[in-house]
């Protein structure tokens, strides 16, 4: 599992990186922005409410613009028709990373991290955001891409899975479609992943509601049907092959 959340804001030209504390406060009123670029570092955002007993404070950092590391795998970027064209023109990136995140609840981590990504998107006008852990590209201003629901054909079975819960200390999810509509099942996995981030416990041996209230679906431990290898919970619909 990754140690923390990460995102790359993507640009097709020069980047003027001057984040505004006022913009940041729109997303998190008490957040503090520290500029360390004059000392050779980057920017650091602190969240006073998110302090562990140690005490450790949740921090999100981002550095100066860097040359893009080349093309990214967009095979599982769905719903954005222009993704390949936009990403092909990317020449610069700004990387946002989380520090000390594992000490805090997943929902708080996502909310804090999102505040920084949205601040930079407002202030620097990227053309896209790349989420390495979920292998997903999103347009700026769209929903956060911490978790991606992927579609696969695995040895003749149509499989859906999530990618991106691992950095939050949570298992990813997977499901064989069988006769169920993929888009409905995709929304189901996305909603289940969101509820796990919000604190819902899910473990092997549980039985959960399906697409309708009367359906009862079993939850079992992995292995993952599709790469990468990682902790996965398999949700088995009624009558799935």
TrEMBL record:
Pfam families assigned to the protein according to its UniProt record, in alphabetical order: DUF4261 (PF14080)
Superkingdom in the source lineage: Bacteria
Sequence ranges assigned to domain DUF4261 in this UniProt record: 161-235
Protein name per its UniProtKB record: DUF4261 domain-containing protein
Species, as recorded: Dactylosporangium maewongense
């Amino acid at each position: 599992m990754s140690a923390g959340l990460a995102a790359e804001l993507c640009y097709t030209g020069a980047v003027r990186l001057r984040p505004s504390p006022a913009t940041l406060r729109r997303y998190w009123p008490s957040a503090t922005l520290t500029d360390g670029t004059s000392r050779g570092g980057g920017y650091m955002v602190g969240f006073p409410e998110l302090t562990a007993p140690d005490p450790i404070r949740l921090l999100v950092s981002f550095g100066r613009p860097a040359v893009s590391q080349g093309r990214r795998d967009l095979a599982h970027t769905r719903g954005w028709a222009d993704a390949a064209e936009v990403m092909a023109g990317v020449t610069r990136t700004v990387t946002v990373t989380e520090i000390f995140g594992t000490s805090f609840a997943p929902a708080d981590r996502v909310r804090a991290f999102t505040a920084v990504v949205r601040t930079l998107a407002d202030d620097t006008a990227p053309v896209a955001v790349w989420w390495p852990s979920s292998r997903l590209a999103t347009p700026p201003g769209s929903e956060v891409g911490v978790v991606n629901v992927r579609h696969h054909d695995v040895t003749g079975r149509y499989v859906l899975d999530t990618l991106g819960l691992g950095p939050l200390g949570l298992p990813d999810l997977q499901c064989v479609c069988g006769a169920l509509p993929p888009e409905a099942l995709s929304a189901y996995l996305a909603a289940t992943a969101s509820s796990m981030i919000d604190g819902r416990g899910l473990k092997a041996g549980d039985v959960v509601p399906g697409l309708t209230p009367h359906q009862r679906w079993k939850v079992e431990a992995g292995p993952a049907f599709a790469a990468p290898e990682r902790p996965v919970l398999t949700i088995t619909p009624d009558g799935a092959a």
